[in-house]
Amino acid sequence: MTRKRRHSLPLIVGGTLVGFIALMALISIFWTPYSIQDMTGGRLGPLSSHHWLGTDKLGRDLLSRVMIGARIAIAVGFGSVLIGAILGVILGLVAGFAQRWVDESFSAMFDILIAFPTLLLAMLIVAARGASLTSAIIAIGIGMSAIVARLTRLLVKRVLAKDFITASRASGTSWARIIFIHILPNIWTTLIVTFALQFGFAGLTEASLSYLGLGAPPPNASWGSLLQEAQATVLTSPVAAIAPGVLLVCLVIGMNLVADGLRDVADPTLRRSR
Amino acid sequence: MKVLEVKDLTVQSGDGSKVVSSVSFSVEPGERLGLIGESGSGKSMTALAVMGLLPAELKASGGLLLGTGKDAPRQIIGAAEKDLNEIRGRVASIVFQEPLTALDPLMKIGRQLSEPLRRWKGLKGEGLQKAIISALAEVSINKPERIAASYPYEISGGERQRAAIAMALACEPSLLIADEPTTALDVTVQAEILALLDTVVSKRGMSLLFISHDLAVVSRITDHVLVMKDGSVVESGSLTDILRSPQHPYTRDLVASAKELDNALAIAKNSGGI
Ligand SMILES: Nc1ncnc2c1ncn2[C@@H]1O[C@H](COP(=O)(O)OP(=O)(O)O)[C@@H](O)[C@H]1O
Ligand SMILES: [Mg+2]
After folding, report:
1. CATH number of the domain that B215 lies in?
2. Fewer C-beta neighbours within 10 Å, C or N terminus of chain B?
3. What DSSP assignment string belongs to A94-162?
């Protein structure tokens, strides 16, 4: 039997990558090198001791903008995972308990929602309530909820088929209590892994929405808008595109690694072989 | 007044095939009844029907009255889940075949046992702890404190089945249903569990419905038996009568093979093989 590794390598590497981005986001709340309105840096300035990442075409400090972008990415991750988790777990639980055609209807609904492009969903939501960070978070969260719901439904059905559920019912435990003491504890480790994975993807989706102008409006630029703005001048000042691009990749890969690491550490079947 | 009265119980699956057909029997207070039959003969479904715990795709019809022997018995078929939860564990409870799957793998034994104790006896804190320890001690668990603090996978198969029995006994039911409680265990542990059931059932004056595919096992703990085959009761009566003059061909086979086994064991013993 393998020993449980308390600290898995993926968790450390992923945690470091994401931690770095989270730290940038945290600092940006209190301090950025320059104000986002500050256009005194000179257009498309090179990397210098004053502007570590140079300046953009309006003379704004790029590092400051990238830091704000990190804040937005983290906010999108938390916001959309919160919506996706609450909505998804509730729907998945209901579907998990449902039988026959009710169950099939739920499954069909999840499949349609998963197949439905988040982009289109975002456009609809933006049309209804205007382009904003909140609109993007809602769109991503709803899209994510279908993925979470489908997984939750599957996990719930698997746990419901276990003898210990019947045994618990045989001693008079109500369904409501069974959900809290047996079902949720037996599925949450798998769900957490998915949440971590989705956190990273949410940042990526928000970047594509912003790239298309469906995300946070200026001047609070997300990495997606930075990429879009840098596009025209990518040959003359590539850092403006590279910096947000690399951070985006770090976020997605970092969260993937965190998810992998969590799977190793929290998997109850591995825990059993302690 | 009877503890359990089963009248023309029929359990049908969705496609209309009968898993249990027109089974009738009753259990008096303090009576022990054996239910014997080959695998797939409908024993477990009869037991689950009594607890109102049939899988959703199976439907029961007929009469199923369950009571403490003191107050008026209640009809199980068609009863609301809420009413069933008042009966389960308190009026009747069940011990399953495979104790590993009948216990939640992520919950310590003490915590699982605390659920029914807390619910029915309103115990808390110190009192609850004491009740858990004494419940485990009652089923002859040597170090109840250690077992209470263990996860199911950390203890032996025999200890797990004892813990499951403790859970079934927690709310002092009038009827204990044991569905092949020793089938998954080693021979020596089997004998211990049988002896334990024998002791607690006598001590508490409970009724026992003991299910097994093994006539030799049933004969050690009950004196009346029902023989089931393909969902129907083919023979019933006192164990001595059935052993002496089995009527149904299937029962004759059962008795013959049990005797063969007995003889083989006796020969093995005399020749020092076992
Ligand atoms: N969920 C189910 N749906 C349909 N048929 C079932 C289901 N569970 C069990 N059965 C059938 O019911 C019959 C009796 O099963 P069971 O009561 O478990 O037998 P036993 O306990 O005597 O071995 C079997 O033929 C089995 O295939
Ligand atoms: Mg069975």
Report:
1. 3.40.50.300
2. C
3. HHHH--HHHHHHHHHHHHHHHHS-HHHHHHHHHHHH-SSHHHHHHHHHHHHHHHHHHHHHHHHHHHHTS
